[in-house]
Amino acid sequence: MAERYDLVVVGAGPGGSSAAYHSAKAGLNTLLIDRQEFPRDKTCGDGLMPHAASE
User: Fold this and answer.
1) Cβ neighbours of residue 41 under 8 Å, at least 6 residues apart?
2) pLDDT value of residue 14
3) Which of 36, 28, 35, 31 is closest to 2 using CA atoms?
4) Among candidates 50, 51, 52, 16, which has minimal Cα distance to 34?
5) CA-CA distance, 28 to 42, in Å (whole number)?
6) 9 in Cβ contact with 32 (< 8 Å)
7) Which residues, listed in sequence order, are joined to residue 10 by a DSSP beta bridge?
8) Any idea what the Cα angle at residue 23 is, between residues 18 and 25, rounded to 5°?
9) CA 29 to mean position of chain CA atoms
10) Strand, coil or helix: 21
11) Rounded CA gap, 30 and 43, in Å?
């Protein structure tokens, strides 16, 4: 069964995760994909404050 999305975000780094979060919160059917499996060893965006990610 094919799924339909309003937005597909490629890359689950700080920017992609923030974009996917806010678009889903706004009511868009959002898919976030990344080539890596989670959790992963690479630290990515762990030093960001919540208000910085929300901008």
Assistant:
1) none
2) 83
3) 31
4) 16
5) 29
6) yes
7) 33
8) 95
9) 13
10) helix
11) 24
7 within 8 A of 28, measured Cβ to Cβ: yes
| Non-local CB neighbours of 54 within 8 Å, separated by 6+ positions | 18, 22
Give phi and psi for 48, each to the nearest 5.
Answer: -80, 135
Give the whole-angstrom CA distance, residue 47 versus residue 8: 25
Nearest to 53 by CA among 5, 20, 4, 6: 20
pTM higher than 0.85: no
pLDDT in tens, 8-55: 999 988 889 889 999 999 999 999 999 877 666 666 655 666 666 665
Q: For tokens 């208000």, what's the residue?
A: 51
Structure tokens at 27: 């009511």
The per-residue DSSP string of the chain comes to -----SEEEE--SHHHHHHHHHHHHTT--EEEE-SS-SS-SS--STT--HHHHT-
